[in-house]
Amino acid sequence: MKERADIHKSIFFGIAGITAILVFVIIGFLIYAAAPVLETSGIGFITNSVWNYDTNQYGIFIFLIDTIIVTALTLALAIPFGLLTAMYLAEWAPAWMEKIIRPIVELLVGIPSVVYGLFGVLILSTVFMDFLNPTVDHLLGFIPIFRNIHPNFHQGLFLSAAILAIMVIPTIVALSQEAMRGVSSEYREASIALGATQWETMRNVILPCAFPGIVTAVVLAMMRAMGETMAIVMLLGNTPIIPSSIFDVGYTMTAKILNDILYYVASPQPRAAIFGIAVVLFFMEMLAVAGVRLICSWAQRRS
């Protein structure tokens, strides 16, 4: 029995080791491929906004800012819907309702991003252009970021963020619901016994206990939104400017990689610059993961 256990342990260790090696191989390949431009440009690769293949000037500041803006707007739309849905499914939904809604939400994960992009281009863009965008502009247009500056555009930041929100809501719902379900029933019963309502129990007991799991869900959704490519290419407009309104166009880092890599893969310096974008994007996501670990550790210490 001991020999069999040692064999199983060795197999598991080997598989884990292979996984870790693959991660380091990918990181090493990205850094190696991007090294020529990162060495010549230095910090200017991030802080400069000029991207010109003819003069070998490579700065991703605009692409970086556009990526952050799209991701932030996506989370602003997705978190309320995802978290409220998870709360309803975890605490208030009847069993038969939960069995209907949960599979429908999870089904959204399996839809290819290009299908989301087509849905946005062919259907949702018309709804936004004819109804939603003018309505927001009419109600909030006195605030610059809500002005409908491109009334005839079928593309834009708001449309892209709405599609991305639909794509990441299942992640928030599934993981947040599991985090809430994981809270001990004794906590719920103690709260109710002290006279708290179900909503007060949710707000003061369940949400604080499930906070690390909810934060993890949000970060994973953020990474999905930050790394999405095809739908963004189809919906954002691919114009290298910093948006002045949520209805403006933009150009994210992933869209730049997809649009340019096939044309410049044979040219050493441009190819290195494109891989440099991937390196920056990868480290942004690493920082996000490190941040969520710090937040979860802080929450656990407080609890």
UniProtKB/TrEMBL annotation:
Source organism superkingdom: Archaea
Bilayer topology: Multi-pass membrane protein
Pfam families assigned: BPD_transp_1
Membrane spanning residue stretches: 12-38, 58-86, 107-129, 156-175, 205-226, 272-296
Leader sequence residues: none
Record keywords, A-Z: Cell membrane, Membrane, Phosphate transport, Transmembrane, Transmembrane helix, Transport
GO process annotations (BP): phosphate ion transport
Primary residence: membrane
CDD domains, sorted: TM_PBP2
GO molecular function, one term: phosphate transmembrane transporter activity
Key word Membrane present: yes
Every ABC transmembrane type-1 domain range: 64-290
Location in the cell: Cell membrane
PROSITE patterns: ABC_TM1
PANTHER family reported in the protein's UniProt record: PHOSPHATE TRANSPORT SYSTEM PERMEASE PROTEIN PST (PTHR30425), PHOSPHATE TRANSPORT SYSTEM PERMEASE PROTEIN PSTC (PTHR30425:SF1)
Similarity comment: family membership: Belongs to the binding-protein-dependent transport system permease family. CysTW subfamily.
Function: Part of the binding-protein-dependent transport system for phosphate; probably responsible for the translocation of the substrate across the membrane.
Protein's name according to its UniProt entry: Phosphate transport system permease protein
